[in-house]
Design a protein that fits this description.
This protein is α/β, with parallel strands linked by helices. The chain has 13 helices and twelve strands. Strand 2 and strand 3 form a beta hairpin.
Length: 375
Amino acid sequence: MGKIFTSLGLMSGTSGDGVDASLISSDGLNKYSVIFDQYFKFDQNTYEKVHILKDKITKFEDLKKYNTEINELEREITLFHSKVVSAIISSTNEKIDLIGFHGQTIYHNSSEKISKQIGDAKLLSQLTEKVIINDFRKNDIQNGGEGAPLTPIFHNQIVKQKNIKFPVCILNIGGISNVSAIRSLESNSLKSRDLGPGNCLIDEWIRKNTKKKFDKNGDIAKAGKVDKLILNQAIDNFENSFVKKRLSFDRKDFSLGFVRGLNLEDGAATLTDYTGKVIVTNLLNFLSEDKEKKWKILICGGGRKNKFLIESIEKEIVKNFSIQLIDDYDVDGDYVESQAFAYIAIRSFLNLPITFPGTTGCKKPCSGGIITKNF
């Protein structure tokens, strides 16, 4: 067994509402243990700035057009992350060796081979006096991959460590939904892809029509009625879309346009059912070669708390598939991604692969992550 590192993973996802932080110890190969998990919420001002900026950036040229705003927000977000690190250092006796710093994605277009996360690694390293590893997607993209999903290698580690029987899928419902199919413990046999929207459309609908940030438990959707006509048309449009051929998606690949005329509750119900149906349709397509097998589907991410969405998925799933929360295996489903970035920071530091031809479409297994020491 190699050296055990203590690594802090910092993840700010599509919801753009704060930072998930996870401190783990691991050799990056055979095992990991969780020391600390905590969520740090952005203040309302930062939260609004993130979403206003993301809404403005719809094409590559916008990255240049809004460069000043991007730089200002990058500094603000980096300072926030430095406060998170300080809070964690003061609350633990552990010596942190590495920080996996995902940053905030503001633009991801797999067909253009561009993925832009904001977060200043040099500044964060200087402020925290720690080795920072970030920009995890760049090397994968340069080697023909789509730069996402990045978490399957950690999903593989969870299955290995928890002795979960094969075949198993880990379905992450964050802003975008993605899945890792694990048939054996060989990392080269890993298969993954994004499936479609997760929480992103539902959250945006709630954000634009109420003062809330998300539909807690799916209660708003539950109070509404699904518009079947609109729903079926939207699903047909997605099925016929060129976007579907990609392995990775961005929030901007999906639109709220088809529910625009509906009231709050009916819009939420229709969007939630749409999200569930797209997830299941693409999951079954993804597993089409092994559809007869008894797959165990373990769900993580914020979407697992939306009861209406989970019910929508369960209604559509085939009978030989079983659905469980990953929490049933003593894994906190809120922090799988932040733990993953702590884990892949270690692998990046050791120059071990974090992406594979079956996960992102890269030509060969690729390491990733840029190492920054600025103190």
